[in-house]
Amino acid sequence: MTRRGRRPAEEVRADILEAVGAILLSEGSANLTFERVSREASVSKTTLYKWWPSMGALALDGYFHAVEGTLAFPDTGDIRVDLISQLRAFGELMTRTPGGRVLTELIGRSQTDEDLAIAYRRLYSSQRRRLACERLRRAQEVGQIRSDVDLQIIVDQLWGAVYHRLLIPDEPVTDRFIDGLVTNLLDGVASRKA
Amino acid sequence: MTRRGRRPAEEVRADILEAVGAILLSEGSANLTFERVSREASVSKTTLYKWWPSMGALALDGYFHAVEGTLAFPDTGDIRVDLISQLRAFGELMTRTPGGRVLTELIGRSQTDEDLAIAYRRLYSSQRRRLACERLRRAQEVGQIRSDVDLQIIVDQLWGAVYHRLLIPDEPVTDRFIDGLVTNLLDGVASRKA
Q1: Which of B129, B164, B178, B183 to mutate to test the interface with A (most CBs of A within 10 A)?
Q2: What is the full DSSP assignment across B33-76?
Q3: Where is the HTH tetR-type domain (chains A, B) (predicted)?
């Protein structure tokens, strides 16, 4: 007995997000349509429209779930090592898969599309900020990051600095760049006076 | 005797850039047209098309010249003080004048318009990078920044971090944020071990 029409909502939702994420990371966003997602996830377009008000919102939700594993924050107990490995994984994703272009195009469109900008922050960037801050907070708790530092600013000086090179590519995103970001920020760039 | 038709090219060029910059910083880019610039700078549209292949290129060139003074890099001899005052001026310009939206919209469009992306880098961002690095290099020469630091990465961790908040506004650009950027990067965020 097939119960396809009665699958639990959470299961249907997971199937949809998986289908969207797979398309985005393998092909980019050009071929992403409600039609195709409906077909690949065996779900009606009405359901899609009900849960996601726009293709941008659906794409962002699918993207977030698709990259969650790749962009997970390791915790080996050494914040320096963990930041470098997470940021290198992020750099790889953004420069070596269609996922990078998906995100920079969404950020680009969100400059003139306020609904998309809100969806971007709600479904993607604020979630990524939260996850980064959780890892940074543990480093602060064990005394690896000074207690007076605003962790949100660290997000801008690490991941934000990578986005800067992705969005305005005067300079490339390389492992050397990523290592430099972490070293500069943890150790400081000012000369140590006696 | 009027010599309007024979003004030296450099003078005409300066008039055009000034007209474009004034429009962008007071009104934004919505009303910027070749027609209007032609009228306000008393120059033929043919001349405009000859010097600037697109409105994006003309806007970027005008913008760069319009903000050059506001965004000048002071040199009091103290890099910490100078970075904070330049970055605060930059934050002001980007959040309190139409100039901020002009730039974020151009960056947004440049994600899908390769000609605009090239113009953006050539006429704006690479020039701003060069000016920032000149000031940072002097700080490095007088021993205020460690000699092994890649100055280009500092640009991403200061100005790039500001752009990150402008383009993806999960968090605001405030003076407190700017001061934090400079303190974090110069002094480092890692706890000092004995």
Answers
A1: B164
A2: -HHHHHHHTT--HHHHHHH-SSHHHHHHHHHHHHHTTTT----S
A3: 10-70
Token code pair at residue B150: 């890649």
Candidates B125, B126, B165; nearest CB to A156: B165
Between chains, do A190 and B144 touch, taking CB under 8 Å as contact? yes
> Domain A4-64, what fold?
Arc Repressor Mutant, subunit A (1.10.10)
The full set of domain ranges for chain B reads 4-53, 68-187
Residue in A with minimal Cα distance to B30: A112
Closest residue of chain B to A123, computed from CA coordinates: B170
Do the chains contact at A108 and B107, CB–CB below 8 Å?
yes
Instruction: Estimate the crossing angle of helix B151-167 against helix B126-141, to 10 degrees.
Output: 130
CATH of domain B4-53: 1.10.10.60
ipTM of the complex: 0.94
pLDDT in tens, chain B (194 residues): 455 557 899 999 999 999 999 999 999 998 999 999 999 999 999 999 999 999 999 999 999 999 999 999 999 999 999 999 999 999 999 999 999 999 999 999 999 999 999 999 999 999 999 999 999 999 999 999 999 999 999 999 999 999 999 999 999 999 999 999 999 999 999 997 64
Answer positive or negative: Cα dihedral of A26, A30, A34, A39.
negative
